[in-house]
Structures are given as C-alpha cells and as structure tokens.
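Continuing the series of single-chain predictions for the mutant panel. This is the parent chain; the variants come on the following pages.
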Amino acid sequence: MPRASTTEFATTTEGDRFLRAYDAVLAKWPADVRAVTVESEFGTTHVTVCGREDAPPVLLLPGGGATSTVWFANAAALADRYRVLAVDPIGDVGRSVAHGKPMRSVDDLRSWLDGLAATLGLSSFHLIGHSYGAMIALAYALERPERIRNMVLLDPNSCFARMRAGYLARAVPLLLRPSGDRQRRFLRWETDGRPLDEDWLEFVALGAEHFPTGKLVVPKRPGRPALAGLAVDTTVVLAAGSKVHDSAKVAATVAAASSRLRPVLVEGATHHTMPMVPAAEVNATLLGALG
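Parent structure:
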C-alpha cells in the first residue's frame, strides 16, 4: 500500500506519534524556541527559530531524516550569539510540506534556499550543514558565495571523498526497506554504542518507518576545479570515528583543495553522533568557526 501524503500522514495514528516525538525532542531546545513557516513554489518550509531577532543569523541544515530538532544540544550555545534558524528540508522527514512545483534539481535546491532567505529577511547569513545538509550547503555556497558570511560543514559525506563501501552496504538496505528497528541497529553500529538521546533515537526511528518522504535531490560531489574556486571561508568538521569515510584522509584532501577550506578533526565523534555528541567539543568548534 502506498504511503499517505505528508498532510494525510499527520491525521493518522502513526503521524500523531511522530509529531509527539518531534515535540519531545524540540522540548530540549531553549525556552524561547518558536516556529516559522515559509511558503514557496516548492511547498511550505518549517523553520525552528531561537535567539535574538537582531543577532547575526545562522541557518542550519540537518542530515537526512534528522530534522531541525537535531540541533537541540547546540541551539542554546549558538543562540547566545546568533539568531538560530534551523530548517526541515522540503521532501525529507519533518514538518515541511511539499506541494506545488516538485524539487528535481540542484538548481531547485538553490532556488528554494534563495526564497527561504529572502522571506526570512536574510541578505547574508552564516551557514551550517551536517551530512546531507552539508551537501546542500556546499552546492549552494559554490554558486551563491555573496550570500554566505562563512560556512561550517559537519562530517560532510560525498563532498570531498566517496563514502566507504562498508557504510553503503549497511545504509542502502535501510533506504530500500526502512523500519524503526533497522534504523536503530544502523545508528548503534555507526556510533559504536555511544550514548544517543533516547527521545531523538525514537523519533528518528518513527520517521524512518512511517514518514512519507519523496525522492531527495542529491548534489554531486564537486570536482577539484570547483573546490579550488570556492569563495566562502569554510570549516570542515570531521568526526574522527566516522564510518562514512576515512576522516584523516578527508582532512588531507580538504586542506589541499583550497585555502578557503580548513579541516578540524573532532575526537569522540562519529558521523551520526554529530551534531549532538560530543556536544561541548562540537559547540566550541562551531562558535570558533563562525567567529
């Protein structure tokens, strides 16, 4: 049986469980957290916001299936200095709703972010992306450098190197046959049993099993000439224990690719513990990188 649309899903028992789990993770954010919705030709984008309205804006793009709520361990630290705007990407798990024009290309992704920034009143902004969000951020920065003050990419997969075959061997079956149990086992494997927030783990498992996602637009890995031409100061934060790639090799590739790129290796982190664990180290790195 085909999955319901996003709007229909919200009215089901599974949808109600998902939204309650979403809110349970969101409750870990600072007390002033609020939601903003932005309409576009691609649909309605849900943005989780905290921090002073007059502070410098930082836009956060999460990893696939993680939603804007995943920044709960980082939001308070960032909000001390910045206006935090965390996005649920259209077409992925979350409260955003795809309607109107389908998003089919990287140019569509850029147009979506252009419209989002314009509606939010952002002439320029800091940009942080993790995993799939880092792929979107890099693709955007290569074409819209004038919009970005600086950028942080957290353990970016398929941006500077191929993903490991062993990681793909475990990830692809999960994408083809998603279930909550498979999602939990996959995350436990990649994180080597490191402690993950149980509310977040339950939420992600519910999203993997029940949420009616579409086919996401996946930017291609940029070639060397494109990276050499990057015009945005960018910190690439790599998880030392990541099973997505060999982080030490990626760090060397990043350092050689452009003077605009600066690699940082975070011990005690894996691809899927970021940006939550280790929170203190990740937050210090983010704040240092943003300036």
